[in-house]
Amino acid sequence: MFSPLVLLSFWLISLARAQSSPPTNLPPVDPGAFTAEASILINATVEKVWGVLTDFPSYAEWNPFVRSQVVTSEFLVPTSSQEPVEGHRLIIWSQIPPLTPPVNANSFANPLNTRITIENITHVQPDLGRVAWKLFGSPDAILSAERWSAVSAFQDEDGIEWAFYESREVFSGGLAALVGTLQGEGLQQGFDAQAQAMKVRAEGL
Ligand SMILES: *[C@@H]1O[C@H](CO)[C@@H](O)[C@H](O)[C@H]1NC(C)=O
Ligand SMILES: *[C@@H]1O[C@H](CO)[C@@H](O)[C@H](O)[C@H]1NC(C)=O
C-alpha cells in the first residue's frame, strides 16, 4: 500500500505535468465514431506557423498527407487569391496513409492511396489562430467530418516561447465507423506526418 504522502506526491507530479502541457485552442465538439488528431510544439512564431498552415498552394512542397488543397468558389472554380474564405470550397487530394517524408513538389502520389474530397470552409478565425473545413455534399446522418486546425502561443516552464499546432477531425454519422475501420489508422498517420512536416517546414523558413 502507498502511504497518503506518496499518493499526494504522485498527485502533485501529475498536476505539474498536466499544467506544463499546452492548453488546447481547439473548440469543444461532440465526440464522433472516431477522431484523427495531432499536435506539436514548433520553434517558430505563431504568425509563421499560421502562414504555413494557410498557404495551401505550397502544401505540395512539404506535406506528406495533403498533397494538394485548392480553394474554389461554390461552383468549384479556383480563386485567384487561394486564401481560405468561409463558405468557399476546398478540393483536397490526400494520401492515406501519407507518403514517406520528406516530400517535395515532385514527389509521386500513390494512386491507390489517393483520396479526393470536396470540403466547405466553415470557419476562418485568424484572431484565434483557427480554421476549419467540413466534408461537403454528404448528409451529416451518413458521414460528417469537420477538420479544425489551430495555432497558438505557448510558453514552457523554462520560459521558452513556442507555437502550438493542433489539428483534429471528428468523424460521425452512419458510415463513420466503417471509415474508421478502413482508413482510421492511415488518417491518424497522415495527421502525425503533417504535424511533423509542418514543424520541419516552419522551423526551416
Ligand atoms: C529555436 O530556434 C532558435 C533559432 O531560430 C535557436 O536559437 C533555439 O535554440 C531554438 N530553441 C529550441 C528550444 O530548439
Ligand atoms: C459553408 O460554411 C459557411 C460558413 O460556415 C456556411 O455559412 C455555409 O452554410 C456552409 N455551406 C454549406 C453548403 O454547408
TrEMBL record:
Signal peptide extent: 1-18
InterPro entries: Polyketide_cyclase/dehydratase (IPR019587), START-like_dom_sf (IPR023393)
Pfam families: Polyketide_cyc2
Gene3D superfamilies for this protein: 3.30.530.20
Stored SUPFAM superfamilies: Bet v1-like
Keywords tagged on the record: Signal
Presence of keyword Iron-sulfur: no
Protein name as annotated: Coenzyme Q-binding protein COQ10 START domain-containing protein
